[in-house]
Amino acid sequence: MSRRLSSMPQLSHSIPDLVRSRVSTRGFSDRELEPEIRSALADACRPMTSGLLKEKAEFRLADKPSEKGSRSKVTDYGFITGARYYLWGVVEPSPLAYESYGYLMEHLVLKATDLGLQTCWLGYFHPEFLTGEAPRAEGVFPAAVIVGYGTDSWKGRLVRLAVQAARRKAWGRLFFLSDFKTPLSTAVCGVYAEALEMVRLAPSAGNLQPWRIVHEPARPAFHFYLRTMKAAYHDRHLHEVDIGIALCHFELAARCRDLKGRWIIDDPGFSPPDPQTRYRLTWLGF
After folding, report:
1. Are 286 and 260 in contact (CB under 8 A)?
2. Who has the most CB within 10 Å: 54, 94, 173, 273?
3. pLDDT (tens digit, 9 = 90+) per residue, 259-279?
4. Is 286:223 a contact under the CB 8 Å cutoff?
């Protein structure tokens, strides 16, 4: 199995700039998206038709106005106000369907950021609120993304502070060399340092960063593992979605440096540090 996205959304800003500038927003204005912005998002959704295992996929932009000043009807999660536009999709079931969902959706999140919009990932929501608008194919639908123009809400800032949204784990806790005992240094990973930093900065449910990566320099290969951090997120497959987001960041940042490679399933057989850590996918450079 190998996979590369042949028709990714065109971006006017660099991946590092977009990743560093994007923050999770919980307060949105009721301002309508301009026709050209809506068209650009719809165009970005169209090529998102194939997942990491070539699963069939479909993504779209939904317009669901709510009463002015009210909380979003799509979720019971507090502190989200003014939400109107949503990115959502479905991916055909497969062993990597949830990773594929996060991988494809994060392309759209970065496109929205590139267009000057704010976003918020939703892992707890009412799917029928979005899917009731039209028939859809069967498949997984683990998350949605609110998109629009943000407002500077004190409630949103309070939530970000409470979950320490801007805090990230150190390299030595996430990235390893040849096993799970030796921390990976930026010097050793060389030209891939930026791609790994984009993974480190990626958003995740509860900001738990469930990815672990072991670099095998001889090939070169980067083996992605998932470490279960919270049972509730595990049960809703949100950790797998997070891994997909990390895969997207890694690939796009690597391609910005003209680093060629592909995604493969190739478990190296390294002994995980605990039962909560399991292999998911490998980037093989060439």
Report:
1. yes
2. 94
3. 999 999 999 999 999 999 999
4. no
